[in-house]
Sequence to fold (320 residues):
Amino acid sequence: MRIVIPGGTGQVGTVLRRALTAAGHEVVVLTRRASGPGELPWDGRTLGPWADAVDGSDVVINLAGRSVSCRYTPDNLREMMDSRVLSARVVGEAIARAARPPRVWLQMSTATIYAHRFDTAHDEATGVLGGTEPDAPGYWSYSVDIARNWEREQERAATPDTRRVALRSAMVMSPDRGGVFDVLSRLVRLGLGGPVAGGAQYVSWIHDLDFLRAVEFLIDREDLSGPVNLAAPEPQPHRAFMRALRTAWGVPVGLPATRWMAEVGAFALRSDTELLLKSRRVVPGRLLDAGFTFTHPDWAGAAEDLTHRHRHGRREPAVR
Fold:
């Protein structure tokens, strides 16, 4: 297959590109800084010669969007919104104009679209979208607005011959340098991997092998469209999540952090506390109903596998 990946140079794009290329597919990455074979330049906003790669392709997987690991300043929030909405819009325009449009368009979204909650888990059928929670900071609603607008652009696209899927993805855990697993592991090894603000908030996650397998599953399943949660079936409270990660690394203790300590740390890292404090209890209802099986459904086993690969410098997951 020919697979086009707009915004395919980040952590998730690297995971996908590596695996899909190894599987024998032709992968074309659209990036603002094209520098190697298989990469084409684009600005994520306007049609250009890159659209020729979409015409005649089999699959488009749009991952484009500014990293959310930043301070939530007005300028950064605006760039987070624009980079997602405008890239989804122009990808839709390219597909609409194609003489031979791709059969499926997978559009990255986020599990952050769901409400901050500690009780019932969110699936696609019964989950509650966020933005109005009384116990969450008001500015957290902007992340939900970004996700809603991101998905809305795909819904509005005039692409009747292309099946569309919105990937409401949890954090993708891979041992790649700079990814979320790498960052959390560094904190654990420094003795700082304790619970944050009590640790009751839920962490939703997905092992990189299951993310890859879910993408392949959704490419093949012509009966699946619309929002799909990409998350392991067992989200964990932050306290238990970090305990399992410490166990995997053989680190017995981790210093806890209060909310104000998390705010200081986030400021120092030029990030935001929403990434740590929002409770994301998300489960993969549609994937499970469709018969998808997870190779790493529980976090303790996933953490052991990822830690082993990290220690041995092995980036690719073991195929099962």
User: Anything to note?
Assistant: The first strand starts at residue 2 and ends at 6. The longest helix spans residues 74-97. Residues 40 and 319 are 29 Å apart (CA to CA). The chain has eleven helices and eleven strands.
